[in-house]
Amino acid sequence: MAHPRLEFTVDSVEPSGQVLGRNHDFDIPVGTTFVVIRKVRVDGDMMHLHTVDLGVIAPIALTLKAVELYGRSLDVIPGGYTAGLTLEGIGLDALTEAIRSAAEREYVLIAVS
């Protein structure tokens, strides 16, 4: 059985260190460690969009410590939802720089694998 692709698209890192963004398809539980930063780019027009994987841009070791969704604390990042994350470990500076340097139509993701 294939493992689900656990990844979170990061929109911003707040001055407080909270990471804001959107989860993809699968729930991600507190305690999960993200190990890479990836970038993707969306190409095409509104009727013919496709995603180009730009690959891994940095290794990280950021463990999910807390999830905030609509002012509530949860034990998972629900699939398909936008949330605020508290992450601890190595790589928050690299994540902040990746977001800052992303070109138009490029998106930054943190992933478990």
Short description:
The chain has one helix at residues 92-101; strands at 7-13, 19-23, 28-29, 33-43, 50-69, 72-74, 76-77, 82-90, 106-111. It is mainly beta and 113 residues long. The strands form two sheets. It has a six-stranded antiparallel β-barrel.
Provide the descriptors you would attach to this structure in a database record.
113 residues, mainly beta, 6-stranded antiparallel barrel, two-stranded antiparallel ribbon, 1 helix, 9 strands, 9% helix, 58% strand, globular
Please describe the biggest sheet, giving its number of strands, its sense, and whether it closes into a barrel: 6 strands, antiparallel, barrel
Q: Estimate the global geometry from the Cα principal axes.
A: globular
Radius of gyration: 14 Å
**Would you list the SSEs in sequence order as H and E?**
EEEEEEEEHE
Distance between the termini: 16 Å
Unreliable runs, pLDDT <50, ≥5 residues? Answer: none
Number of strands: 9
If you average the pLDDT, what whole number results?
A: 94
Please count the helical segments: 1
SSE layout and pairing:
Blueprint: E1 7-13, E2 19-23, E3 28-29, E4 33-43, E5 50-69, E6 72-74, E7 76-77, E8 82-90, H1 92-101, E9 106-111
Antiparallel strand pairs: 1-2, 1-9, 2-8, 3-7, 4-5, 4-9, 5-6, 5-8
